[in-house]
Design goal:
This protein is mainly alpha-helical. The chain contains five helices and two strands. It is 69% helix and 4% strand. The chain has a two-stranded antiparallel sheet with strand order 1-2. Strand 1 and strand 2 form a beta hairpin.
Length: 101
């Protein structure tokens, strides 16, 4: 059972972050602003020992870069824009695109 004070803290946090029931709104993730960067980092760090693995790595980097590009284009909250700026999202996106060429 959640204590009343803890429940209030969770409620206030949800209200502050404006968490919605559906995490997808206007064709983008509105919660989990870290997902695209983390997905791209994971895909870039993959190590494969065969040609099939290289194809999978390339596909994942392609998906992750498209997701990150969409996030950069549609970000509206100051918190998200600051996060994207701090993590050098645009630079990382360009590196991913160069890898794919």
């Amino acid at each position: 059972m959640i204590k009343k004070s803890r429940f209030l803290k969770l409620y206030k946090l949800q209200k502050t972050l404006k968490i919605m029931e559906n995490p997808i709104k206007d064709n983008r993730l509105v919660v989990g602003i870290h997902f695209a960067i983390r997905f791209l980092s994971f895909a870039e760090a993959m190590d494969s020992g065969c040609a099939c693995g290289e194809d999978e790595k390339e596909s994942m980097i392609s998906y992750a870069s498209k997701l990150l590009e969409h996030q950069i284009q549609t970000a509206t909250s100051e918190h998200e824009l600051t996060y994207l700026d701090i993590t050098d999202a645009k630079i990382r996106l360009e590196k991913a695109k160069q890898f794919l060429r």
